[in-house]
Design a protein that fits this description.
385 residues, alpha+beta, Heat Shock Protein 90, five-stranded mixed β-sheet, 10 helices, rod-shaped
Length: 385
């Protein structure tokens, strides 16, 4: 409104100067100052509000312009109507602009017929040219404003989509890290608990066996700490530089995993087919599924249980089968009302299922035919082209 106020003041001062010049020249039909000054002020005042209230301002200008033009007080009426037509088109819309132009044409034609009938053609041409000029300018500025509004809306939408994508990426990364932490901690702690129990039984009768168990606990704990530090470094650091990090385990590290499980007291029969070059994510998923399955065998299958791991690739599909002959081999011997701790629903099984599903695979978990337990996973191989 500041710019419009300056414009209105300048227009009003110009009309007052014209009125003063007419008074000094002693021209006939000059209205008295107490009529001319209020009419001039009333003519330019609505222009201050032409952006805030375009319709109200425009119709007040139209009414006052009839009096202003009849008294021939200057250019305020012509300039005010031109600015009003422009403002209505830009700030109110085409429909309101057409209605207002119709009112301006009707008022101008009626005034020309009553005051200057001999100049009707010239007045009509001048009116048509002025309306066309103001309407064209209003359309141009209105289109520009609509374009700016559309650009702002698109930018806001892009920012919203970017924020949403960031939240989704953060949630996915948190889920991945949670699965990694669970797999690392659950496996290491299970091995350490089993070895600690064995050492407590053998510490008196077989010190050498207890010593080996303590060594296994120490090695397992150090390995788990190393993996935890690696995960925490990823969370803490945004830099790719610095100390080299230990690579994530993959399907080719299953032999080391089987050796650690044998040391922990679970004989593992490992059979690996020709896996070739697997994508890093699929290879890590295979390793973690086997690790969680063997950890469950260690925790729940009981003493004397053995495990079998089969990993084979056929075309673009990798099949993982982990089974054990757990204690209480016949599933029907589980007491009624007692839920097997390895039934789907635990965090470990949920993590395995998520790992399979994230790569478009499937996971089946349940009692094996004839007793024991088995985990079967199929993962499609999608190599980057």
């Amino acid at each position: 409104m500041a710019g419009d106020s300056v414009l209105a003041v300048l227009l009003g001062l110009f009309d007052l100067l014209l009125f003063a010049a007419d008074g000094l020249a002693e021209l006939p039909d000059v209205p008295p100052w107490y009529v001319a000054v209020p009419v001039n002020i009333a003519m330019v005042t609505p222009l201050v509000f032409r952006r805030k209230s375009p319709l109200w301002s425009a119709y007040v200008v139209l009414v006052v312009s009839v009096v202003h033009a009849s008294l021939m007080l200057g250019i305020g009426s012509v300039a005010g109507l031109a600015m009003s037509i422009y403002s209505v088109v830009v700030y109110a819309g085409r429909r309101q602009g057409l209605v207002y132009v119709g009112a301006v044409v009707a008022a101008s034609v009626l005034q020309a017929v009553l005051d200057r009938p001999d100049e009707l053609v010239i007045s009509a041409l001048f009116l048509a040219f002025g309306i066309a000029l103001c309407w064209t300018l209003g359309e141009f500025v209105g289109a520009r404003r609509a374009y700016d509004v559309e650009v702002e809306a698109r930018l806001h939408l892009l920012e919203t989509e970017r924020d949403q994508a960031t939240r989704i990426a953060v949630a996915e990364e948190r889920g991945r890290i949670a699965r990694e932490l669970h797999d690392v901690v659950a496996h290491a702690v299970s091995v350490m608990v089993v070895q600690a129990d064995g050492a407590s039984y053998a510490i008196q009768s077989n010190p050498e066996l207890a010593h080996r168990a303590l060594q296994t606990i120490s090695e397992t704990g150090r390995g788990a700490l190393g993996e935890l530090r690696r995960l925490l470094d990823v969370l803490r650091s945004d830099d790719a530089d610095g100390e080299p990090r230990v690579p994530q385990p993959d399907a080719h590290a299953l032999a080391d995993l089987a050796d650690r499980m044998r040391t922990a007291g679970v004989p593992v029969d490992l059979e690996l087919g020709e896996l070739g070059d697997l994508p890093a994510g699929v290879s890590l998923g295979i390793y973690r599924i086997v690790q969680e399955s063997l950890t469950n065998t260690l925790k729940h299958a009981g003493r004397g249980a053995t495990a079998s791991v089969r990993v084979h690739r056929t075309g673009d599909l990798v099949e993982v089968l982990v089974s054990d002959d757990g204690a209480g081999r016949v599933p029907q011997l589980v007491p009624a009302g007692r839920r097997d701790p390895r039934l789907p629903g635990g965090n470990g099984l949920i993590g395995m299922r998520e790992r399979a599903h994230v790569y478009g695979g499937k996971l089946d978990v349940g009692p094996a035919p004839g007793g024991g337990w088995q985990v079967r996973a199929t993962l499609p191989v999608r190599l980057d082209k």
